């Protein structure tokens, strides 16, 4: 446990070491898979690259991503529309909070994906069931962050502004919004990450339900199910998985950037 | 605000929701589309006599094995990264690379590698619980107060003493916070893994009941998923509070 004592490694070492290790692992992996002749069962680094090239040049992956992202965007908006007002209400009115808390906590503990059978029953398999799951996942981070944001508002600032004759509008614009927006934005980031994870789970579950009865390749999850059960292409599956990771990273980086641009007073 | 109110208030929300649910069920008048609370309760009671205990045990077994392995591995890796800058230089970027890949994205690959079965949820839970505890513990180690370590060392403490009496207590809250985060993600992955690629457990049972169109049982199983998640989190919250009681100075880190 020397880290508290040891000096950090030079920057160049910190950049080079992982690259070398990753490259060496890939080469050894490739050799091992070829030597044991387990291609097709175990992903092959070169195969992942090859299927990545095919899937990106043919545009298949972009189409599927666009389908999934569209549902994420709609679900995120629904989650915000339900979650933010609810969170604000719960955060402002203590008795409401005390009586709704157990219900909200229980609902939040239900993994969104568990609703899939009910969602399919209520909304059908063609996309809206997935939308339900995504909205459900996105709602709770908004409730939590909005209620915390309200509670963190400094009452003295509000009182001071009022005492100095600020109109309600000014109080909202100059005191309430600057102090609640950063928290809300963080909630939005969590909500979006949840939504992105849930859309894939929902599409996988739905895809498995309708595999074989006339495919409906509408999102990345359905595409993965098709690749798994129809094409059995493990390299493509790994490529999809990496692409999902890249999209998560891009979403979060974009939101962080937006957070700094829109809320420059918040140094978190 | 009497003691009575404090007991009654949390009930209000539940009662209102159940009444609303009953009302919707009555309006819908379709026990498949919207099973009423009473029907779901009856389904729950019959399930309790049948498969439910076995399903819950299966899920708990998945969770225990996957979460145990994941937390142990994450902790070991974080300690290794904390002991050596070289290990850290390799593990940290690797973790940053893998972390954004949601466990869900692994499901098809896990199905292909392990086949539909208990290994799929176990693997997902393992993967999901690995990162929060790794990141949180390593972060805790990085933020150990150097002055404390130096003070202990200059007062003649051995490395062992420093480790056990300075570093571990300082990192413990981060470990517990990480364990709680891990459990949250692990629970979501458990349900997703069982639904999509499992052959046992409460998540798998939800789809099983759906095959037979027993929506009352589906609904009961969904609520049980929520109750189990709630119980798991409450348990870890208790652990966190117990830790704080043992050493109040630990409260800040978590």
Structure, described:
The complex is a heterodimer of chains A (268) and B (254). The mean pLDDT of chain A is 85. Chain A has helices at residues 11-36, 45-58, 60-92, 94-109, 116-123, 128-152, 155-163, 168-210, 220-231, 234-262. Chain A is built from ten helices and no strands. Chain A has one domain (52-262): MetI-like (MetI-like fold, Orthogonal Bundle), CATH 1.10.3720.10. In chain A, α2 (45-58) packs across α10 (234-262) and α8 packs parallel to α9 (220-231). Chain A is globular. By secondary structure, chain A is mainly α. Chain B has 254 residues and is an all-alpha fold. Chain B has a single domain (50-252), classed as MetI-like (MetI-like fold, Orthogonal Bundle), CATH 1.10.3720. Chain B is built from ten helices and no strands. Chain B has helices at residues 3-28, 37-49, 52-83, 85-98, 103-114, 119-142, 146-154, 159-197, 202-211, 215-246. In chain B, α2 crosses α10 (215-246) and α7 runs antiparallel to α8 (159-197). The longest helix of chain B is centred in the C-terminal third of the chain and has 39 residues, at 159-197. The radius of gyration of chain B is 23 Å and the shape is globular. Chain B starts with a helix and ends in an 8-residue tail after the last helix. In chain B, 44% of the residues are buried. The chains are: A mainly alpha (268), B mainly alpha (254). Chains A and B meet through α1, α4, α5, α8 and α9 of A and α1, α3, α4, α5 and α8 of B.
Write the layout of secondary structure elements.
The complex is a heterodimer of chains A (268) and B (254).
Chain A: H1 11-36, H2 45-58, H3 60-92, H4 94-109, H5 116-123, H6 128-152, H7 155-163, H8 168-210, H9 220-231, H10 234-262
Helix pairs in contact in A: 2-10, 3-4, 3-6, 3-8, 3-9, 5-6, 6-8, 7-8, 8-9, 8-10, 9-10
Chain B: H1 3-28, H2 37-49, H3 52-83, H4 85-98, H5 103-114, H6 119-142, H7 146-154, H8 159-197, H9 202-211, H10 215-246
Helix pairs in contact in B: 2-10, 3-4, 3-6, 3-8, 5-6, 5-8, 6-8, 7-8, 8-9, 8-10, 9-10
